[in-house]
Design brief:
Layout (H helix, E strand, L loop, with lengths): L1 E4 L5 H12 L7 H9 L3 E6 L6 E10 L6 E9 L8 H15 L4 E6 L3 H9 L3 E6 L10 E6 L4 H5 L1
Length: about 160
């Protein structure tokens, strides 16, 4: 498996993974992925080394200006056939490296019943800071807001 920038050619596979994983919570459309890439976010694709198939993807929105960056983890998803193999962890770690390069905190929302994702985020320094009732639509599922404080590259290396 290798990580590389998410490209428009990957969007059709992203939409299929969205349908498999998030059918009850308004999966992203191709237009949503195009808009995210147009906005200049930091999006990565996890690709199979053998057949170049998309295994997963993740995206970090970056806003602000030098010295005052903010980031939001907008999405992270792994095809159901490839979950539990470390792909989601690799994607998350790569996004956090980018946030650390910017010395930016990372904010995200995660379903309150997604214990696997919550445990992963907590392992990487995220803390629950809020609850958003009925955040996911149309299911009405609640979400935790989680934050990982800004880290400077020197702090991570140390």
């Amino acid at each position: 498996m290798r990580l590389e920038p998410l490209r428009r050619r990957h969007i059709r596979a992203c939409v299929e993974i969205e349908r498999l994983l998030f059918s009850g919570d308004g999966p992203w459309s191709a237009a949503a992925f195009h808009a995210e890439l147009d906005a200049g976010g930091y999006y990565l694709a996890a690709l199979d080394d053998e057949d170049d198939r998309l295994l997963g993807y993740a995206g970090l929105a970056v806003v602000g200006r030098p010295g005052d960056w903010e980031t939001g983890l907008h999405t992270i998803a792994v095809h159901p056939d490839h979950q539990g193999k470390g792909i989601g962890t690799a994607l998350l770690r790569a996004l956090l490296v980018r946030a650390d390069e910017l010395s930016a905190a990372v904010v995200l929302e995660v379903r309150t019943d997604n214990d696997t994702a919550i445990a992963l985020y907590e392992r990487y320094g995220f803390e629950r800071v809020g609850l958003r009732k009925r955040y996911y639509q149309p299911s009405g599922a609640d979400a935790y807001t989680m934050v990982r404080p800004a880290r400077r590259t020197q702090e991570v290396a140390g």
